[in-house]
Target: EF-hand domain-containing protein
Amino acid sequence: MPLESIANSHEPITLDSLEIELENYSSFYDTRIDGTIPMPELCKLLSQQWAQKICQKGRIIDYALYLRRFTLVKADDLGTISYIDGATESTGQMVKKMSLDETPSLFCDVDKQGKPLSLCPVAMKVSDNLLAVWIVGARESGNATIAKQAQVIRALLQFAFGEFEDTQALYTALQGL
Model:
């Protein structure tokens, strides 16, 4: 869909998936210099307080539990999720093998030589036909860490990503993680 059509439309945009970044809002990667360019002046242009905090501090919570991004995806359209380098199948195919409910589920695949991958997808249902999918390092794949990451995602979905933001409820939900 052309960008002009989106900008001029008053209709909601329909997406099959949406990747949400939770860090580095105030810098852009420049391939010409193979580095980032800081742009802190962008922070004040963000409309939600949680996004401004990420922009100013780099992360939504100081100890972000290694959760840097996650993808919201329709359960029946997992083909839009990218591959993990070295995996024998797509992340979407790995997610299809999981037992999916409100509890996060982990699937660690092996590479073509049969060695465990260093990265593993985690997925959980966030509504009837919507999943949250994120990637963890095999070393970070403990149940306690994944459960805390799931709490962060649920808090963001409930208090930050809606028509109305409830910043105080968001920070209350994130305390103690």
